[in-house]
Specification:
Blueprint (H helix, E strand, L loop, with lengths): L2 E5 L9 H18 L3 E5 L4 H12 L3 E4 L3 H4 L3 H13 L3 E4 L4 H12 L3 E4 L6 H19 L11 H13 L5 H16 L3
Parallel strand pairs: 1-2, 1-4, 2-3, 4-5
Helix pairs in contact: 1-2, 1-8, 4-5, 7-8
């Protein structure tokens, strides 16, 4: 099982197709590499709306955590965030761009020693296309490793993979995390 909590902005701009495409691709990568079993997220517009749609499209179990602003006032967001972390018990907390609610989720998750990944979204189609090309090159370099003995990667190959993983930081922190995990599993798996 691989439960995840996702937090991000309530701004409707993230519901636009250009951002939605990026969010879907990042979540698709996560699904392919980790077999996400459950996602907890808020019930607001913006990132939450896109994540909910992705979960429905991909048939991934999810739960919307609602903030009770009427009864809990300004503390409703932090209470909701704490409840999501407690109930979901995530392996990863994914933070898309956001404001105070996302900052609070980050703080709570870090206090609980959860793995926090901050995801950058790109603001122009050109930047997004450049990122996709870097990812394609990165993955082709990793997959081009001639030594298929997964448990016997040489030191030099490990150094090269390390450089590729570091270069992926320019693309997206989540991608870097996923590549690091995939490379670790690749290196440790016994045929």
């Amino acid at each position: 099982e691989f439960p995840v909590v996702i937090s991000g902005s309530r701004e409707r701009i993230y519901e636009r197709e250009f951002y939605k495409e990026q969010i879907f691709e990042i979540l698709d990568m996560l699904l392919r590499t980790t077999k996400v079993s459950f996602i907890g997220h808020g019930d607001a517009r913006g990132i939450d709306t896109v994540v909910s749609k992705w979960c429905e499209d991909r048939k991934v179990a999810h739960r919307e955590f609602k903030a009770d602003w009427k009864n809990q006032g300004k503390s409703a967001g932090p209470i909701r965030n704490a409840l999501a972390l407690k109930i979901v018990n995530p392996k990863v907390v994914l933070l898309f761009p956001g404001n105070t609610g996302t900052a609070n989720m980050k703080l709570l998750a870090m206090r609980q020693n959860r793995h926090v990944v901050e995801v950058k979204l790109h603001d122009t189609p050109e930047a997004w296309a450049e990122v996709q090309e870097k990812r394609r090159i990165l993955m082709s370099n990793i997959l081009a490793q001639p030594d298929r003995k997964r448990n016997n990667l040489s030191w030099g190959k490990r150094q090269n993979i390390s450089k590729w993983v570091q270069s992926s930081q320019d693309c997206c922190p989540l991608f870097s995390c996923i590549v690091s995990t995939a490379v670790l599993l690749y290196a440790c798996k016994i045929d």
